[in-house]
Amino acid sequence: MPDEVYGALGLLAVFGLILIRVPVGAALGITGLLGYTVMDGWRNAGLAAGETSSYLVGEGAYGLTVVPLFILMGVVATRSGMSGDLYRAANALFSGLRGALAMGTIGACAGFGAICGSSLATAATMSRVSIPEMRKFGYDEKLATGTVASGGTLGILIPPSVILIFYAIIAEAGVPELFAAALLPGIALAALHVVTIAIIGWVAPGRVPKMPGLGLAERLLPLFGLWKIALLFGIAVGGIYLGVFSPTEAAAVSALVAILIAAATRTLDWAGFRTSLAETVSTTAMLFFIVLGAFLFKEFIVLTQLPKAVTDLFGAGSLHPWLVVLLMLAVYLVLGCFLDTLSMILITVPVFLPLAEGIGYDKVWFGIFVVVVAEVGLITPPVGMNIFVIRAQMPDIELGAVYRGIVPFLFADTALVVLLVLIPGLALWLPGLLY
Question: What number of helices (H) and strands (E) belong to the chain?
Fold first, then answer.
């Protein structure tokens, strides 16, 4: 049997194990270890597993330390009530416009997602904060749920992004370059969502109420409440961009500052702090377990030469690069039905990155592209995971209403994907300027 067939069977085995509810990390690790054993014997498979584990706790450990630090920052920021500050400030900023609450929700989702690093957590948190407010003021339920579901995907792009850190590790790319590359597409996607709400308000004003505008003082006062988030963003991202901190140093300082802010403002007591530490440890352990499995699976995939075979098949002029991009997009839309963004990236990047580089795309650009399309998969009916998160938070809203509410925002996501493909500089201009 050709080696490439073993790789293809390994991919099918991973998806099969996940479908029967085997944890993603275990599915990746088991498939990688057994596949390596079948191809190269149990002794070499054991050596590969030992070398991978040694790398993750040795040479690769420094790069991984950024993950628990950014997670701690996000958990402390969440538990100290910064999501409410964001929502009030965003609403004040858009007040007087038709759809101000929905537009404010988009802004709050983008900011909150940036500090918590999870689309699912953002959707769950903001659905509790914003959907009741929008329903109270007469917003259409479809628009309210669609806004939160799609808004939950925004913050994963805007730095600091834990997902981009894991992509950097698996793709051997630079974290500062990826953070710089993500900033403009993240802002552009948030703007496209706001424009989508404005268009809905223009076409169907009955679905989007217009609330009275606020005075200048009433607008500015909530904005002052953003100083905590602005400080964290400035340290975590500005410090990296300016070369003051390495990513790990920026994560450590921003986590400490988040704790000090929560203590100084008395928004987090000792019990809440201990809970934050416990949540950080459990989340980090879960993510590192997935990463270990992903590295074992990557070793197996490299051994099978599947990435080279895929590159030779699709990248040797037999298919136009546009068609290759569309095929990858289709794969991510399907995977979004049952996988989270991190799992999608760790499973597919070892196969798709060589293909993307083979048809002329930069690995930094591909990192932004893959995060965008993976996030689109999380809100694509009929099974996008963000949809079910919102449904779990708001069980009285029909699932069909959430599906219909998502549709207009899919056009905004599609527009960003098209812009990234047509204008790679949207992602590559800022890292080229800075680095």
Answer: 22, 0
CA angle, residues 286, 339, 178, in degrees to nearest 5: 75
Cβ contact 174:135 at 8 Å:
no
Angle, vertex CA 97, rays to CA 94 and CA 99, nearest 5: 85
Rounded CA Rg of the chain? 22
Identity at 390, one-letter amino acid code:
I
- What whole-number distance in Å separates Cα of residue 324 and Cα of residue 359? 9
Per-residue pLDDT of the chain (435 residues; tens, 9 = 90+): 677 787 788 888 888 887 787 887 888 888 888 888 888 788 888 887 887 777 776 655 666 777 788 888 878 877 787 766 766 777 677 777 787 888 888 887 877 766 666 676 677 777 777 788 788 778 888 888 888 888 877 767 777 777 888 888 888 888 889 988 988 998 899 899 989 988 988 888 877 777 666 666 666 777 776 787 778 878 877 887 777 888 888 888 888 988 998 888 888 888 888 998 998 888 788 778 877 887 888 888 878 877 777 766 665 556 677 788 888 888 877 776 666 677 778 788 888 888 888 778 889 999 999 888 887 877 776 656 677 777 777 777 777 788 888 888 888 888 998 899 889 899 999 988 887
